[in-house]
Amino acid sequence: MTELMNKSDLSGTYDAARAYELDRAHVFHSWSAQAEITPMVVTRAEGSHVWDANGTRYLDFSSQLVFTNLGHQHPRIVAAIQEQAAHLCTIAPAVANGARSEAARLIASHTPGDLDHVFFTNGGADANEHAVRMARLHTGRHKVLTTYRSYHGGTHLAVNMTGDPRRWASDHGSTGTVHFFGPFLYRSAFHATTEAEECQRALEHLEQVVALEGPATVAAIVLEAIPGTAGIMVPPPGYLAGVREICDRHGIVLIADEVMSGFGRAGRWFAVEHGAITPDLITFAKGVNSGYVPLGGVAISDEIYSTFAHRTYPGGLTYSGHPLACAAAVATICTMEDEDVVGRAERLGEDVLGPGLRALAEKHERIGEVRGTGAFWAIELVSDRTTREPLAPYGGSSPEMGAIVKGCQERGMLPFVNYNRIHVVPPLTTTDDEAREGLAILDAALDATA
Ligand code: PLP
């Protein structure tokens, strides 16, 4: 470590040991026991790879937190941010600005139906907070129904709406949130044995929850079109259309949280396209600009927009539609259009990831189920295929899961892990060969820990 170093020099030559030391002294990490973590120091990243301080190269099968959809250091996004920074780094949300206007236009051109108006936020949690506020003001109702096995963000209402264990310690109640079961045949809450049965029973259950909560009190149903960190449970055919129908019948706003599933991740611009529905609001973040600068937002239907046409929307954020973030979004979306990145994600799932993971499931007894679509997959690991006993408890970890993850890392691959699942969520631009390499590493890590 050199004390003589120019402290503002954060270039590639920055001392890795100093980065680690300062991190441990001063950086307070998310979702972690502070004294028990040993964060990897990343010094460089490009495409589907990152390099640690020792120069070891890793294939990034996690897209970090499932956001580097176009991979690391994409030259077009980097250039767009640099160009924007050179002429206008920042400007308040109340003014019009080219980067913000173009980003909104491009987003609106890909959202389904008439979701043509965009409220920008800093990320996914605040997008969900604002979507619910809009729904409450639009309907004059207060309750929000959300699914168990979901994640909606780490802020007050968003964590309260979350249905997975990350809510447990931070659930302060009193936000008007009621949880219901979404469809998940592998661990069916309804004792269903087929997808069709699961779909029908999940919809009947939701109908009952609405009835018992009082339809006139329910402002919104919020769901991930394909739940992401909670397990990548692709809903059965007809489920999303069924929820849309329940919302229509009761005047409930349907909010699709596409923070993780949106912008090509699921092999469509938005995952709701798999169910052929148009929600009233879509929340997005992550893939909108590959996470190069924090950005999220709410895409708003004409009807909800009209509520605020002559009535002030009582909400805002200092950095709403930040020009650097919006310039990154413009470059990301234009690249996705020009290079058919969404089609690429679909083919990656159909040709490589889906077949590859299913082949691993044939070989490894511990893979209980393979789920996913596009570049959005998870394997669920169990200690016993018959009882489906998870390899780590819900909300916890286990030495077995730890060993598999370590095995992947030691072989040069970074997986995304949650409880008893390994999520295979590489950048959408990952080549077939890179994807095969990652699957081979997963195979070897499973072999080594069998
Ligand atoms: N919604 C979903 C579906 C997510 O996956 C996430 C983050 O992983 C969020 C919301 C929260 O987004 P952020 O961390 O940007 O606030």
Automatic annotation (TrEMBL):
Pfam family, one: Aminotran_3
Matching InterPro entries: Aminotrans_3, Aminotrans_3_PPA_site, PyrdxlP-dep_Trfase, PyrdxlP-dep_Trfase_major, PyrdxlP-dep_Trfase_small
UniProt keyword annotations, A-Z: Aminotransferase, Pyridoxal phosphate, Transferase
Origin: domain of life: Bacteria
GO molecular function: pyridoxal phosphate binding; transaminase activity
Coiled-coil blocks: none
PROSITE patterns: AA_TRANSFER_CLASS_3
A GO CC term assigned to this protein in UniProt: cytosol
Cofactor(s) for this UniProt protein: pyridoxal 5'-phosphate
Similarity remark: Belongs to the class-III pyridoxal-phosphate-dependent aminotransferase family.
Protein's name in the database: Aspartate aminotransferase family protein
Species whose genome carries this gene: Nocardioides glacieisoli
